[in-house]
Design goal:
By secondary structure, the chain is mainly α. Helices cover 82% and strands 0% of the residues. Helix 4 packs antiparallel against helix 5, helix 11 packs antiparallel against helix 12 and helix 13 runs antiparallel to helix 18. 50% of the residues are buried.
């Protein structure tokens, strides 16, 4: 009966596809693969620099570095106020407006950048931060502003089906950070050297992204639809705020007046305001834990938590890559029937659960080995925190996709309300748990907050797209995760300790998990087809046959 139900579900989810559907699926798969390739290469270099910082600076100095970075990133939303997300959505839906949209957005970001610099400096001074910390915050603020601008150019590349090029701009950033960071930190520059490397790399990031996307925002290309980007409706603004589209070969429209430009920028701000408020509260519950730890437990606890938090951030990067490629598709699908977004939601949640539950289960059992192997014995005490924090991944992956699905539907105000509730919940839970459990309490608060965020967002999305089901997607990976856990309980005592044991545990756990998924019918031909689409060599071989 279960197999018959799965077949009926697959017939519904995978109806016969026309050429456009096939090309879209291939474009998303290819874009995700290429972007992931670049991001993974960049993350490997970031991780190498992170290891150098953690080991060379020591726990206390690394804690100071982590605090300054976390404090600065609390102001990230002030530098962007959701403009990057709205810009990418509108560029995907109306590519003929790219040049005007980019110009308006950059003007707004310039003004917001000045406000951000003043805000970070004022708060740092008002809270009595040491001069060294204020200098670190200043460098991180400049870097954050440059990275915020780079997001606009990367959004253009992803909307045009060139996500791989966007990934290369991140690779250039990470390579610069690693080279400069090694030179400065190993020469004794300390945390300041790491911050200088971060700033230099951000400058390379924005320059590389702008150069790579120049053909998309130059004047001659702005008069026609960019190849690979389907036309879409204008943003829902007043007629005065949105210039009329220009068809290919038509005469250029009259230049905009100052009043038209002002209306357009105000329209962008109105659209981005709910996204900005969501970002404020999301940044709050992503970063406030380190700030609260610093205030309640000091630099040592922040250093331990900062060490394990990097593992969580590294895995979240994968979800961000998938969603960033899919978001332009979401924006265009939002103009179609509700079933389109429901199918995107169902498939994404299923994929997220299959991946994150397997990872979280394995890390729970091998947390101490992973922490000591990667970070060193000085961070061994952080292992219990990692075993808890890693369970924030399922909620984080699914909540991120749902938040952007709501934004694609122009329901960003709903996402904002959810973010407010979750942020208040997170701060309150951290205030209760950190004094007693230190960084382990912060890990519990993060995992609980991500789970709550997903539940609230899914409830909101499900009201408008009832085809999005969770139960059938959740139980197979949960059952397979339980089987993996049982296998690890039996086999780990018989494996050697250290790196050799970890290397043997990975294939044992993976075999148990995948076998269980196959037996439960959770993976099959559709997943094999997805792998073939994602792996370039297999994709070419498949087409030739």
């Amino acid at each position: 009966g279960h197999r018959l139900a799965r077949r009926r579900e697959r017939r519904i989810e995978h109806p016969p596809r026309g050429p456009d559907d096939v090309s879209t699926a291939r474009a998303v798969a290819r874009g995700t693969t290429q972007l992931l390739g670049g991001l993974l290469a960049a993350k490997a270099m970031d991780f190498a620099l992170y290891l150098v910082l953690a080991r060379q600076l020591g726990v206390e100095e690394f804690g100071r570095y982590t605090f300054a970075l976390s404090f600065t990133l609390l102001f990230n939303i002030v530098a962007d106020v959701g403009l990057s997300t709205v810009f990418t959505r509108e560029a995907s839906r109306a590519p003929e407006r790219i040049r005007a949209l980019l110009g308006d957005t950059l003007v707004l970001k310039l003004a917001l950048g000045a406000i951000t610099i003043a805000a970070t400096a004022a708060v740092s001074i008002a809270t009595g931060a040491p001069a060294r910390t204020i200098l670190l915050v200043g460098l991180f603020t400049l870097a954050m502003l440059m990275n915020s601008s780079a997001l606009l150019f990367e959004g253009l590349l992803k909307s045009a089906g060139r996500a791989g090029i966007a990934g290369l701009s991140v690779v250039a950033q990470s390579a610069t950070a690693l080279a400069v960071g090694l030179a400065l930190v190993l020469s004794g520059a300390g945390a300041l050297g790491g911050a200088c490397a971060y700033a230099a790399a951000s400058l390379v990031h924005v320059a590389a992204a702008a150069l790579a996307s120049r053909a998309l925002w130059r004047a001659d290309r702005a008069r026609a639809t960019v190849r690979g980007m389907a036309p879409a409706p204008e943003m829902h603004t007043s007629p005065a705020s949105a210039p009329a589209p220009v068809s290919a070969g038509a005469p250029s429209p009259a230049p905009r007046t100052a009043r038209d430009a002002m209306h357009s920028r105000l329209a962008l701000l109105r659209e981005s305001a709910p996204v900005a408020l969501s970002g404020v509260f999301i940044a709050l519950y992503f970063r406030v834990d380190s700030v609260m730890l610093h205030a309640m437990k000091g630099d040592h606890a922040v250093g331990l938590y900062g060490g394990i938090y990097r593992f969580f951030e590294g895995f979240v990067l994968l979800a961000a890559a998938y969603r960033s490629v899919l978001f332009p598709v979401m924006a265009r699908a939002a103009d179609g029937p509700p079933e389109s977004l429901a199918i995107l939601c169902r498939k994404s949640l299923r994929l997220h659960l299959l991946f994150t539950i397997g990872v979280a289960t394995f890390f729970t059992f091998e947390a101490r080995t992973i922490v000591t192997l990667v970070l060193g014995q000085a961070y061994a005490a952080a292992a219990p925190g990692l075993a808890v924090l890693i369970w924030a991944l399922p909620g984080a992956y699914m909540a991120d996709t749902l938040l952007h699905l709501l934004t694609a539907q122009r329901r960003q105000a709903t996402g904002m309300r959810v973010a407010v509730v979750v942020a208040l919940f997170n701060v309150g839970l951290n205030a209760v748990l950190i004094p007693r459990f230190s960084f382990v309490g912060a890990s519990v608060a993060t995992a609980a907050s991500e789970a709550l965020c997903f539940v609230l967002l899914f409830s909101a999305f499900h009201m408008a797209a009832r085809g999005a089901s969770l139960a059938r997607a959740a139980w197979p990976p949960l059952a397979a995760g339980a089987l993996m856990a049982g296998t690890l309980v039996i086999t780990l005592p018989h494996l050697p300790s250290g790196p050799a044991g970890l290397a043997l545990a990975v294939p044992v756990a993976a075999a148990a998990y995948v076998t269980a998924l196959v037996l439960l019918g959770a993976v099959g031909r559709a997943e094999a087809d997805l792998v073939l689409e994602l792996v370039p060599g297999l994709r070419l071989k498949r087409r030739s046959t």
